[in-house]
Amino acid sequence: MRYHRAMTIHDDGQSLFKRLERLERGDSVPLVDALDALPWNRDGLLPAIAQQFDTGTVLMMAWMNAESVARTLVAAGKGTLAADEMFPTIKKRFNSINHDSTEENRRSYRELLFTTPGIEKFISGVILFDETIRQAAQDGRSFSEVLAQNGIIPGIKVDKGAKDLAGFLGEKITEGLDGLRDRLIEYRGLGARFSKWRAVITIGKGIPTQYCIDANAHALARYAALSQQEGLVPIVEPEVLMDGDHDIERCEEVTAATLKTVFSQLFEHRVAFEAMLLKPNMVLSGKECSEQADVVKVAESTVNCFRRFVPAAVPGLVFLSGGQSSELATEHLNAMNALGKHPWELSFSYGRALQEHALKAWKGDAANISEAQKVLYHRAKCNGAARFGEYSKEMEVAAT
Ligand code: 13P
Question: Distance between CA atoms of 262 and 355, rounded to whole angstroms?
């Protein structure tokens, strides 16, 4: 496997582990620091020994790689928060609460999100935007440090947005491959341990074209391979939009065609499936479709579609919410997990569906920070329950 950290045993690691031995109960060190201090060998492997707890007999010795450690971090009951809105998107979100999108307003909003008490119980990682990964909390710690010190892995959006695809009316291509290697190296230095690239596929009359799917899949695969080479776990996001009046069958057909092409490109580009996550849309009826498929139908169509096209080697599918209501996004995830055991973890990487209610509770007013954090905590908790298929509408009532 080509994904590995350029990490060998070193003084820092040895002194960190010596320090760990002397910690008091309740003390902690940032998870990313501990991971970096592990003595990876030149192949990116780490020896792991299992011993009988009472006799100390060595039962097994194996080699763990960075992928299996990353996989261990995608813990049961957790998912990621997408807080990587680009300038036009965060402006739109702030407009909805009559708040100006200034640098300081964006900073204080993200601080509210990242310092929500207890959020680490349900959130394993946060996707940041270029501006955000360079910003700091009021106490001076960078946001990467704030997150990592709370056991949450910082990630970074690395694409430069979806632009019109020349010659293909109504279709988009995501830009950002130029200079990507250098940006990845810089982001890793700023604390990011995973990355995200979003491609957009639009359903409409005569679209998507296979050319649009091919071009986006190719860019996703280029990005994913580069990301792995620079030591960041890629989150590959091919989003089939829910805008339009198409039915759920059409969404399934387009999602299938997209996944088929994306995985073929990832394979061609020698991306290690074990060291990536897929961030897909769910299979849904178009927003304007007169017949909306129910929760069970959405769950079954989504799982069936992904079983056909996503290799079992991929550790997890982390769904985007894509414009569904917060509650429906939770219900859908819950229903999929309730269907039984799947080849991959079925988790969430929601933007709007985690933030929507918190943003409304905040209204841009510092006096509402604590209330907004409670609202975010509640949504994260509901989605945490949905990871086990244990969410119920009573959880919403209990919170009001
Ligand atoms: P939504 O959950 O709001 O769709 O955002 C997820 C995301 O990261 C889109 O790129």
Answer: 29
Domain that holds residue 204: 69-399
- Rounded CA-CA distance 315/338 in Å is 18
> Do residues 81 and 48 share a domain?
no
DSSP 290-302: SS---HHHHHHHH
Residue 329 CA: nearest ligand 1 atom is 2
Which phi and psi angles does 58 have, rounded to 5°? -75, 120
Flag whether 2 is in a domain. no
pLDDT tens digits in sequence order for the chain, 400 residues long = 333 333 333 345 557 777 777 777 777 776 666 666 776 655 556 666 566 667 766 555 554 555 653 554 457 899 999 999 999 999 999 999 999 999 999 999 999 999 999 999 999 999 999 999 999 999 999 999 999 998 899 999 999 999 999 999 999 999 999 999 999 999 999 999 999 999 999 999 999 999 999 999 999 999 999 999 998 999 999 999 999 999 999 999 999 999 999 999 999 999 999 999 999 999 999 999 999 999 999 999 999 999 999 999 999 999 999 999 999 999 999 999 999 899 999 999 999 999 999 999 999 999 999 999 999 999 999 999 999 999 999 999 876 6
Number of domains in the chain: 2
Q: Quick one: 89 and 53 in the same domain? A: no
Q: Which residue's C-alpha comes closest to atom 1 of ligand 1? A: 351
pTM of the model: 0.86
- Cβ–ligand 1 contact at 254 (below 6 Å): no
